[in-house]
Amino acid sequence: MTNAYGYPATPPPGYSRPDRRPSGATAIIAALLALPLAGIAGYLPVDVFIDYGVDTLPSELLILLGCYLGAAVFLLIAALLIFFRVLAGAILLIAGALLALAAPLLEPALLGQNEYGTYFTAVFQLEFRNAFVRLGALVLAPLVLIFAALPPTFRHLRHRPRPMPSYGPQPGYPAGGYPPRQW
Question: How many domains does the chain have?
Fold first, then answer.
């Protein structure tokens, strides 16, 4: 089927208009998942610092709490940047998700237990204090990481719409916007 000029009426397969705006679904989903993950990751350091203070904690635990706190800060800032369509937000989101995922995975090794089977059994059965923090990080961090690293996320954040044409007075034209008459 062709149009009046003999060209195909529908665009050929694979054709995409260059001015078409990419979908921001993956970027928004990543940012929305990052917000509860930031709250969960930031809860554990605040709870431990309030209960025990910073002076009495061993250095391994401070490193672990620093990972959780760093993840929370990165994720909060990244979610805000994603909502303002800044490309650095996706990179910070990836870094924050990696920190939030690394913290519960490194916890048994840093605290000297090295019993990963017992640790993950206790986490998934919510057997010890603040186990929901580790479980939330283990569930939400991979989701945030996947959605933040997808190409549509970066495509959405890189896209800049073309400026709209100005219909007001143009330079070199009188105030009415029309060129002077030439008789």
Answer: 1
Residue pair 149/94 in contact (Cβ under 8 Å)? The answer is yes
Residue appearing with tokens 């002077």: 180
Q: Domain for residue 76, yes or no? A: yes
Question: Residue 14 is which amino acid?
Answer: G
Helix (H, G, I), strand (E, B) or coil at 8: strand
Domain membership of residue 69 (yes or no) is yes
Q: What is the pLDDT of residues 28-67, one digit of tens each?
A: 999 999 999 999 999 999 999 888 888 888 988 899 999 9
Range of the domain at 122: 25-157
CA distance 116 to 66: 21
If the chain, 183 residues long, is cut into consecutive pieces of 10 residues, what is the mean pLDDT of each piece? 68 60 90 96 92 87 93 97 94 96 91 84 88 93 96 91 67 61 69
Q: What is the pLDDT of residues 167-180, one digit of tens each?
A: 656 666 666 556 66
Specify if 8 maps to a domain: no
Residue 113 is given by DSSP the state: -
Residue 121 counted as domain residue: yes
How many beta carbons lie within 10 A of that of residue 140, not counting itself? 22
